[in-house]
Amino acid sequence: MSNKISIIGGGNLGTAIAEGLIKNGFISPANVMITKRNVHTLQPLKERGVNISNDNNEAAAFGDIIIIAVKPFQVQEVLLSIKATLDESRHVLVSVVTGIYIKDIYSIIEKQLPVFRAMPNTAIAISESMTCLCNQNGTPEQIRYLEQTFDQMGKTITIDEKLMDAATVLGACGTAYAMRYIRANIQGGIEIGFSASVASLIAAQTVKGAAELLLRNNSHPEQEIDKVTTPKGCTIAGLNEMEHQGFSSSLIKGLTASYKKITTDM
Ligand SMILES: NC(=O)C1=CN([C@@H]2O[C@H](COP(=O)(O)OP(=O)(O)OC[C@H]3O[C@@H](n4cnc5c(N)ncnc54)[C@H](OP(=O)(O)O)[C@@H]3O)[C@@H](O)[C@H]2O)C=CC1
Ligand SMILES: O=C(O)[C@@H]1CCC=N1
Description:
The protein is an alpha/beta fold. Helix content is 53%, strand content 14%.
């Protein structure tokens, strides 16, 4: 399989994917093209050797794998504009767009080329994404290639399409939820004596370490909590107060509100 990749929609996620792709040398910048209407903001990628364009058909002709990374309401227009260039025997389409289903894509392109959906998160720019993939009509070779591609930029799993909305909430929105959790820690840290910069460092590294404990030990959070909570100690006092104030409940309610928004209103 040839490995030229075009990204249509060079915004937050599109540029993060481009950065992640070229970061580890997995693909040469010369084999990546990224588009948006106002290409000015793509200058840093151009300086690193990535091809930039405001012509989506040029990108569709360039890439064997075409990643669609525009906003949901822009998908139809973009797919219609490249429809004539799409080649069933060559192209693989990958959409990272929230709430647009594979059947929606087929109904627009009216061609039977392999269609994948990928749901990464913005940590893809530093090769620490959690990416969920699903596909229709992908060959085993194409599935393996795309899993390998996204594995270069974090962890990847293939799931059923019916779980893609849930993957969006847990994996992609999850980056923002985690940032709010860290921000609240920073605010609290400042109140108990640290400067903002020291509080930020302590909060971020502590959350990174906590996540690594789960990933490396393959443990349940409560097992790790048990190792921290000294009987009659300060950790359990704080944790219990957080629960009295609805900590877990508010997170679960937020998560399900995001899910409801995707499944009923996007
Ligand atoms: N941000 C995230 O964490 C995640 C986002 N997603 C999904 O990824 C998609 C993109 O999100 P995000 O990157 O945040 O959004 P952005 O608005 O940052 O990026 C979309 C980009 O598309 C470009 N664009 C718009 N119209 C066209 C067009 N006709 N041709 C080419 N480019 C075009 C815009 O630039 P210009 O106006 O210059 O053309 C813009 O830079 C969304 O569908 C979102 O649901 C999925 C997972 C995570
Ligand atoms: O907020 C959104 O709609 C998109 C989907 C996942 C992350 N950002």
